[in-house]
Amino acid sequence: MKNTFLIFVFLSVITFCKAQVIGTLEQFEECSMRPNRDQEGCPDLENITYVKDTNNRLNQFVGTWKGNYDGKQYEIKLEKKINYKENISDNLSWDRIIGRILVKDSSGNIIYNSMNKPDKDTFFFGYNFQRGVYMMYFVGNYSCLEAGDVFIETRINNPNEMTLVYFQDKDGLLNPAKCPNFSSFTPLLPGQKMTLIKQ
């Protein structure tokens, strides 16, 4: 009985490995820069089920980063997830970065904290590289249209220094009841380049 179970497990692993078609972050980065991508897509990548960080490019971001900007103190923790699926029903899994953020005001009061949230509830996750810069997506106070792309990049001459810039989405549904001070609302992440230091 024990041998039958081991054979079953072994065959299951082999079947799973054969079913998974691996592509690379570089292939998908190249795909995103194709001039005809909007019309034709990337048919050569359609069968891929796992986008792997074969060259460990994501490792440069892993760790805790701290910085200050416009009177706020930022602590950002970035973790690399392997073969990660947002939902179990997804057909495609990725090696990606999941982020957690702690933001304090100039007096040390916590403005935002996602440090103890599960991966799926941090609302700060990576996609892929775009011209060498890693692109993530962040959602803060969605009722105030606080959602958008975050671009992070470590410095070539100093890998312990990272820059971050946030580009807020222009589309979305403003909820005035949940965001009464929208005209004076300031997003958590800066729209100008911020420098963070690895701890």
From the spread of the alpha carbons, the general shape counts as globular
Strand content: 35-45%
The low-pLDDT segments are 4-18
- Strand-pairing-aware structural class: alpha+beta
- The whole-angstrom Rg is 20 Å
Number of helical elements: 3
Helix fraction, binned, reads 10-25%
**Main sheet overview:** 11 strands, mixed
Q: What's the mean pLDDT score? A: 89
- How many beta-strand segments? 11
**How many domain units?**
1
Series of H and E elements:
HEHHEEEEEEEEEE
**Distance between the amino and carboxyl termini:** 52 Å
Signal peptide: 1-19
Protein name: DUF6705 domain-containing protein
Domain DUF6705: 1-144
Keywords: Signal
Write the layout of secondary structure elements.
Layout: H1 2-19, E1 22-24, H2 25-32, H3 37-40, E2 50-52, E3 63-69, E4 72-84, E5 93-104, E6 110-113, E7 124-130, E8 133-139, E9 147-154, E10 161-168, E11 194-198
Parallel strand pairs: 1-2, 2-5
Antiparallel strand pairs: 3-4, 3-11, 4-5, 5-6, 7-8, 8-9, 9-10, 10-11
